[in-house]
Amino acid sequence: MRIQLLDNITGKWALQWIVTWFISGVLALSAGFWLTTNHETLDWFYLGVSFVGLVCVVSLSFRKNILGNGFGMGATAGEVVVQATAGSVGLMLAPLFNFFTHLYGLFYWTKNTDADGDMIPKSANKWVWLITGSFMIIGLALFPTVNDLLTSYGYAVVEDDNSKFLGFISFFWINVIAFIISITAQAAMILRYSFNWWLWILSNFVWLTVNLMSGNYIFAIQTMVYQVNSFVGLYEWYRSEQNTLEKTV
Predict the structure, then answer these.
(1) Contact 46, 9 (CB under 8 A)
(2) What is the pLDDT of residues 72-111, one digit of tens each?
């Protein structure tokens, strides 16, 4: 199904959309930074990292390899520094994973580009869906055990303090779900599967809940900005995939 507005956003209006979205993201993050942080050095550093993240995600949605994976490495490296400086060693695992996947993607995407130099996405068969689903189920089953082991060494990924949001949403489990979905989405993206954007959309909804639960409003704002881009990325990748199929028929 083609949607004219999204066709324009991912086509003739692409540059205008990217500039508008980026400026809106910068303003939203800056407002969140100014209103919800103490403006300390680490806060300023993360604000800068979040701006790099904006360049990364919008470039990935438009299938730009160097900008997407290159800035992705910069953003995730910055997140590692933030978590390390804050003493949250366990929380360094996700950005470290993302850093190395972006490094791999930098070379892998180069080998799969169209005439314009943009990455060519691909569709998933039933085996890819099965492997993806199995990975998420196994990840959810094993995460508590792995997290307990890391906690015993002082490197907990998620703290389990039995807290609940709205009286029934477990803070621990919603963090676990967000973590598993996001690393699955990241892997699917780097492997060029268009369905990764469905996972990012789901992941962003979960992370929004996590950020609201923890009072991390600047992250909540970032998640909503990313969510808008995820819908555009979903359409752009599937549109590109369809165009590729039409050319081969």
Answers:
(1) no
(2) 999 999 988 887 876 666 667 888 899 999 999 999 999 9
